[in-house]
Amino acid sequence: MTDAALQCAGVDVGYQGSPVLTDVNLELLAGRRLALVGPNGAGKSTLIKAAVGLAEVLGGTARIYGRSPERGRELCGYVPQAGDLDPDFPVTAGQVVLMGRYRRIGWFRPTGAADRRAARDALEQVGLAEHAGRRFGLLSGGQRQRVLLARAIVAEPRLLLLDEPFNGVDAVSQETILAVLKDLTTAGAALVLSTHDLVLARELADEVCLVNGRQWAVGAPDEVLTAGTLRRTYGEHAVLVEP
Fold first, then answer.
1. Which one, of 78, 77, 112, 88, lies nearest residue 98 by Cα?
2. Cα end-to-end span (Å), the chain
3. Domain locations in the chain?
4. pLDDT digit string (tens) for 116-158?
5. 3-state class of 150 per DSSP?
6. What is the pLDDT of residues 149-190, one digit of tens each?
7. Do 125 and 150 touch, CB atoms closer than 8 A?
8. Nearest-angstrom CA–CA distance, 149 and 143
9. Are 146 and 128 in contact (CB under 8 A)?
10. What is the CATH code for 4-237?
11. Phi, psi values for residue 20, rounded to 5°
12. Radius of gyration of the chain (CA)
Protein backbone atom coordinates (compact mmCIF):
# COMPACT_ATOMS: atom_id res chain seq x y z
CA MET A 1 0.00 0.00 0.00
CA THR A 2 1.34 3.40 -1.00
CA ASP A 3 2.36 5.95 1.65
CA ALA A 4 0.27 8.59 -0.14
CA ALA A 5 -2.90 8.73 1.93
CA LEU A 6 -4.65 11.09 -0.47
CA GLN A 7 -3.74 11.99 -4.03
CA CYS A 8 -5.68 14.39 -6.24
CA ALA A 9 -4.69 15.09 -9.84
CA GLY A 10 -6.88 17.64 -11.63
CA VAL A 11 -9.83 16.66 -9.44
CA ASP A 12 -13.25 18.31 -9.78
CA VAL A 13 -15.88 17.56 -7.13
CA GLY A 14 -19.54 18.47 -6.82
CA TYR A 15 -23.11 17.20 -6.76
CA GLN A 16 -25.42 15.85 -9.48
CA GLY A 17 -22.87 16.64 -12.17
CA SER A 18 -22.36 20.26 -11.14
CA PRO A 19 -18.83 21.12 -9.92
CA VAL A 20 -18.31 23.00 -6.66
CA LEU A 21 -14.51 22.81 -6.53
CA THR A 22 -12.23 22.28 -9.52
CA ASP A 23 -8.63 21.48 -10.41
CA VAL A 24 -7.42 20.13 -7.07
CA ASN A 25 -3.84 18.84 -7.18
CA LEU A 26 -2.25 17.59 -3.97
CA GLU A 27 -0.56 14.66 -2.30
CA LEU A 28 -0.82 13.94 1.42
CA LEU A 29 1.48 11.33 2.91
CA ALA A 30 0.76 9.06 5.85
CA GLY A 31 1.31 10.77 9.18
CA ARG A 32 0.86 14.27 7.73
CA ARG A 33 -1.80 16.90 8.44
CA LEU A 34 -3.53 18.94 5.73
CA ALA A 35 -5.77 21.95 6.42
CA LEU A 36 -8.31 22.98 3.78
CA VAL A 37 -8.82 26.72 4.13
CA GLY A 38 -11.25 29.00 2.34
CA PRO A 39 -14.47 31.01 2.75
CA ASN A 40 -17.97 29.56 3.15
CA GLY A 41 -19.05 27.80 -0.02
CA ALA A 42 -15.47 27.39 -1.23
CA GLY A 43 -15.74 23.62 -1.67
CA LYS A 44 -13.85 22.45 1.43
CA SER A 45 -16.68 20.25 2.67
CA THR A 46 -17.38 18.93 -0.81
CA LEU A 47 -13.81 17.71 -1.22
CA ILE A 48 -13.93 15.92 2.13
CA LYS A 49 -17.32 14.39 1.33
CA ALA A 50 -16.08 13.17 -2.05
CA ALA A 51 -13.49 11.04 -0.26
CA VAL A 52 -16.24 9.14 1.58
CA GLY A 53 -18.78 8.96 -1.24
CA LEU A 54 -21.09 11.78 -0.11
CA ALA A 55 -20.14 13.98 -3.09
CA GLU A 56 -19.09 13.14 -6.63
CA VAL A 57 -15.64 13.11 -8.21
CA LEU A 58 -16.57 14.66 -11.56
CA GLY A 59 -13.15 14.81 -13.17
CA GLY A 60 -9.49 14.02 -12.66
CA THR A 61 -8.06 11.23 -10.56
CA ALA A 62 -8.48 10.79 -6.81
CA ARG A 63 -6.78 8.02 -4.84
CA ILE A 64 -6.86 6.99 -1.17
CA TYR A 65 -3.78 4.88 -0.44
CA GLY A 66 -3.69 4.01 -4.12
CA ARG A 67 -7.35 3.02 -4.27
CA SER A 68 -10.34 4.71 -5.84
CA PRO A 69 -12.55 6.61 -3.37
CA GLU A 70 -15.15 3.84 -3.64
CA ARG A 71 -12.61 1.24 -2.51
CA GLY A 72 -10.58 3.52 -0.28
CA ARG A 73 -13.39 4.84 1.89
CA GLU A 74 -13.07 1.79 4.15
CA LEU A 75 -9.69 3.23 5.21
CA CYS A 76 -11.27 6.56 6.18
CA GLY A 77 -12.79 7.98 9.33
CA TYR A 78 -15.18 10.90 8.83
CA VAL A 79 -16.37 13.53 11.32
CA PRO A 80 -19.11 15.71 9.81
CA GLN A 81 -19.40 19.45 10.29
CA ALA A 82 -22.38 19.67 12.59
CA GLY A 83 -22.97 16.01 13.34
CA ASP A 84 -25.17 13.66 11.36
CA LEU A 85 -27.23 12.41 14.28
CA ASP A 86 -30.48 13.93 15.45
CA PRO A 87 -29.81 15.05 19.07
CA ASP A 88 -33.36 13.97 19.94
CA PHE A 89 -32.74 10.39 18.81
CA PRO A 90 -32.66 8.12 21.91
CA VAL A 91 -29.13 6.75 21.67
CA THR A 92 -26.26 6.83 24.16
CA ALA A 93 -22.76 8.14 23.57
CA GLY A 94 -21.44 4.58 23.74
CA GLN A 95 -23.94 3.39 21.13
CA VAL A 96 -22.94 6.22 18.80
CA VAL A 97 -19.29 5.20 19.05
CA LEU A 98 -20.16 1.55 18.39
CA MET A 99 -21.65 2.65 15.06
CA GLY A 100 -18.08 3.19 13.94
CA ARG A 101 -17.47 -0.57 14.18
CA TYR A 102 -20.36 -1.55 11.90
CA ARG A 103 -18.28 -1.21 8.75
CA ARG A 104 -15.85 -3.75 10.21
CA ILE A 105 -18.39 -6.23 11.60
CA GLY A 106 -21.36 -5.65 9.28
CA TRP A 107 -24.57 -3.75 9.95
CA PHE A 108 -26.67 -6.76 10.85
CA ARG A 109 -24.20 -8.62 13.02
CA PRO A 110 -24.09 -8.19 16.80
CA THR A 111 -21.20 -6.33 18.40
CA GLY A 112 -18.80 -8.46 20.40
CA ALA A 113 -16.71 -7.89 23.50
CA ALA A 114 -13.79 -6.63 21.43
CA ASP A 115 -16.01 -4.04 19.73
CA ARG A 116 -17.41 -2.81 23.04
CA ARG A 117 -13.92 -2.62 24.49
CA ALA A 118 -12.73 -0.64 21.46
CA ALA A 119 -15.65 1.78 21.91
CA ARG A 120 -14.80 2.28 25.58
CA ASP A 121 -11.16 2.89 24.68
CA ALA A 122 -12.15 5.44 22.02
CA LEU A 123 -14.34 7.31 24.50
CA GLU A 124 -11.49 7.22 27.00
CA GLN A 125 -9.21 8.68 24.33
CA VAL A 126 -11.50 11.70 23.91
CA GLY A 127 -12.00 12.09 27.66
CA LEU A 128 -15.61 10.94 27.83
CA ALA A 129 -15.46 7.40 29.20
CA GLU A 130 -17.73 8.34 32.10
CA HIS A 131 -20.41 9.51 29.65
CA ALA A 132 -20.75 6.23 27.76
CA GLY A 133 -24.27 5.62 29.08
CA ARG A 134 -25.47 9.19 28.74
CA ARG A 135 -27.90 10.16 26.02
CA PHE A 136 -26.04 11.70 23.10
CA GLY A 137 -28.46 14.62 22.75
CA LEU A 138 -27.93 15.71 26.35
CA LEU A 139 -24.22 16.26 25.87
CA SER A 140 -22.81 19.69 25.14
CA GLY A 141 -21.87 20.62 21.58
CA GLY A 142 -18.19 20.07 22.30
CA GLN A 143 -18.87 16.71 23.94
CA ARG A 144 -20.99 15.57 20.99
CA GLN A 145 -18.16 16.47 18.64
CA ARG A 146 -15.76 14.42 20.75
CA VAL A 147 -18.16 11.46 20.63
CA LEU A 148 -18.29 11.74 16.83
CA LEU A 149 -14.49 11.80 16.75
CA ALA A 150 -14.46 8.65 18.89
CA ARG A 151 -16.93 7.07 16.42
CA ALA A 152 -14.48 7.81 13.61
CA ILE A 153 -11.34 6.59 15.34
CA VAL A 154 -12.86 3.37 16.71
CA ALA A 155 -12.70 2.03 13.14
CA GLU A 156 -8.90 2.55 13.20
CA PRO A 157 -8.81 4.71 10.04
CA ARG A 158 -5.68 5.31 8.01
CA LEU A 159 -7.07 8.66 6.79
CA LEU A 160 -9.12 10.88 9.09
CA LEU A 161 -11.36 13.55 7.56
CA LEU A 162 -12.87 16.28 9.73
CA ASP A 163 -15.21 18.97 8.44
CA GLU A 164 -14.95 22.17 10.53
CA PRO A 165 -14.43 20.17 13.74
CA PHE A 166 -14.07 23.20 16.01
CA ASN A 167 -17.22 25.13 15.12
CA GLY A 168 -19.13 25.82 18.34
CA VAL A 169 -16.70 23.75 20.40
CA ASP A 170 -15.63 24.82 23.88
CA ALA A 171 -11.97 25.35 24.75
CA VAL A 172 -11.65 22.09 26.71
CA SER A 173 -13.08 20.04 23.85
CA GLN A 174 -10.89 21.81 21.31
CA GLU A 175 -7.78 21.08 23.36
CA THR A 176 -8.80 17.43 23.72
CA ILE A 177 -9.55 17.03 20.02
CA LEU A 178 -6.25 18.63 19.03
CA ALA A 179 -4.32 16.30 21.34
CA VAL A 180 -6.07 13.23 19.91
CA LEU A 181 -5.40 14.34 16.33
CA LYS A 182 -1.73 14.87 17.04
CA ASP A 183 -1.48 11.42 18.65
CA LEU A 184 -3.18 9.77 15.68
CA THR A 185 -0.92 11.39 13.11
CA THR A 186 2.16 10.61 15.19
CA ALA A 187 1.03 6.98 15.04
CA GLY A 188 0.86 7.17 11.23
CA ALA A 189 -2.67 8.22 10.28
CA ALA A 190 -3.09 11.06 7.80
CA LEU A 191 -5.39 13.98 8.61
CA VAL A 192 -7.47 16.32 6.47
CA LEU A 193 -9.51 19.00 8.18
CA SER A 194 -11.39 22.02 6.91
CA THR A 195 -11.19 25.21 8.92
CA HIS A 196 -11.73 28.95 8.81
CA ASP A 197 -9.14 29.45 11.56
CA LEU A 198 -5.89 30.63 9.98
CA VAL A 199 -4.05 30.53 13.30
CA LEU A 200 -5.09 26.90 13.83
CA ALA A 201 -4.10 26.00 10.28
CA ARG A 202 -0.68 27.57 10.75
CA GLU A 203 -0.05 25.81 14.07
CA LEU A 204 -1.53 22.35 13.36
CA ALA A 205 -1.07 21.63 9.67
CA ASP A 206 2.01 20.38 7.87
CA GLU A 207 0.40 21.56 4.65
CA VAL A 208 -2.35 24.03 3.77
CA CYS A 209 -4.56 23.99 0.68
CA LEU A 210 -6.34 27.27 -0.12
CA VAL A 211 -9.58 26.78 -2.04
CA ASN A 212 -12.40 28.94 -3.30
CA GLY A 213 -14.17 27.34 -6.22
CA ARG A 214 -10.79 26.04 -7.32
CA GLN A 215 -7.44 25.36 -5.68
CA TRP A 216 -5.43 28.57 -5.28
CA ALA A 217 -2.35 27.32 -3.46
CA VAL A 218 -1.00 24.29 -1.60
CA GLY A 219 2.16 23.91 0.45
CA ALA A 220 3.71 24.57 3.83
CA PRO A 221 1.76 27.05 6.01
CA ASP A 222 4.47 29.71 5.89
CA GLU A 223 4.51 29.51 2.10
CA VAL A 224 0.74 29.50 1.57
CA LEU A 225 -0.70 31.69 4.33
CA THR A 226 0.72 34.91 2.94
CA ALA A 227 -0.97 38.23 2.23
CA GLY A 228 -0.86 37.66 -1.51
CA THR A 229 -2.30 34.15 -1.61
CA LEU A 230 -4.99 34.99 0.95
CA ARG A 231 -6.09 38.03 -1.05
CA ARG A 232 -6.26 35.95 -4.23
CA THR A 233 -8.27 33.26 -2.46
CA TYR A 234 -10.63 35.42 -0.40
CA GLY A 235 -10.70 38.53 -2.57
CA GLU A 236 -11.88 41.62 -0.75
CA HIS A 237 -12.84 39.49 2.27
CA ALA A 238 -9.24 38.47 3.03
CA VAL A 239 -8.30 38.51 6.69
CA LEU A 240 -4.55 38.61 7.25
CA VAL A 241 -2.98 36.93 10.27
CA GLU A 242 0.59 37.71 11.23
CA PRO A 243 2.77 34.65 11.97
1. 112
2. 37
3. 4-237
4. 999 999 999 999 999 999 999 999 999 999 999 999 999 999 9
5. helix
6. 999 999 999 999 999 999 888 999 999 999 999 999 999 999
7. yes
8. 10
9. yes
10. 3.40.50.300
11. -110, -35
12. 18
